[in-house]
Design a protein that fits this description.
Elements lengths: L1 E14 L3 E8 L3 E7 L9 H4 L5 E7 L6 E10 L2 H4 L2 H20 L5 H12 L4 H12 L21 E5 L4 E4 L11 H12 L12 H18 L5 H9 L1
Parallel strand pairs: 3-5
Antiparallel strand pairs: 1-2, 1-4, 2-3, 4-5, 6-7
Helix pairs in contact: 3-4, 3-5, 3-8, 4-5, 5-6, 5-7, 6-7
The structure holds zinc ion (ZN).
């Protein structure tokens, strides 16, 4: 059955001398594995359009639970700005790795959040902030959503003194046991990141010291609760 799907290439794998297999996150069918015959051939029009991050309309012979076959791609965006900047491409590469992990664990489609994140990075918004927003919004899909309304231990909604990643959330005055104190502003920003609609972000200004604390909180929370090891995040940590 020949169908059209809107998608973004997450990964590519060489297959034989001339072909490759790509994983595409699609709006309509979730993650789809696609065989691209001849796509490694320099003269093939499919060569460029099947590279990681390509966003387009893919015409495929769709087979559920098997590899689909690519017919053609109508490219919508190849993200010129992202590809021209090592920092931006590092974040985008990490997002692809994270998306692969999230879609393996969740039925809910994160296509729109992923696409909007790439659009915002392409537009020049801070890639660290956009990545952190995406990471936070992916937590419920990984089954480890954040509770940002009350103390994680006793349910107290007032007298919150800090947030702690290894503890898993907010800590109130009564339950406090010497965890590092973070600024109230950090908790407010984490809440904002968690609930914001990515498409609605037009500009963001967060002080560097807060950005670093928030990123560390998210990385520590991922380490403690998701069970994921994300190789490319470690690379990003080194360039922040
Ligand atoms: Zn408490």
């Amino acid at each position: 059955m020949l169908i059209e799907v809107e998608g973004i290439v997450l990964s590519e794998l060489a297959y034989g001398e001339t072909s490759k297999i790509i994983n595409v996150l699609t709006k309509e069918k979730g993650l789809v594995g696609i065989m691209c015959k001849g796509a490694k051939n320099i003269k093939s029009p499919l060569r460029a359009s099947t590279q990681v991050l390509t966003y387009g309309i893919f015409s495929i012979y769709y087979k559920q639970d098997k590899l689909s076959i690519l017919k053609s791609v109508d490219i919508k965006n190849i993200w010129k700005v992202i590809h021209s900047d090592l920092t931006k491409i590092s974040y985008a590469t990490y997002l692809c790795e994270l998306v692969m992990q999230v879609v393996k664990q969740s039925e809910q489609n994160i296509f729109d959040n992923f696409l909007q994140s790439l659009i915002k990075i392409e537009q020049g918004l801070d890639p660290l902030i956009i990545t952190n927003v995406f990471e936070l919004k992916s937590l419920p899909l990984l089954g480890v959503g954040l509770n940002l309304d009350e103390c994680i231990r006793c349910g107290n909604k007032t007298q919150i003194v800090t947030i702690d990643a290894s503890y898993g959330g907010l800590i109130c005055k009564n339950c406090y046991q010497g965890e590092p104190i973070v600024d109230k502003k950090v908790i407010q920003l984490i809440r904002m990141y968690y609930y914001v609609d990515i498409a609605s972000i037009s500009k963001i200004n967060v002080e560097d010291k807060y950005k670093k604390i928030i990123n560390k909180f998210i990385s520590d929370y991922y380490d403690s609760f998701t069970g994921l090891y994300l190789h490319s995040k470690k690379f990003i940590e080194n360039i922040i």
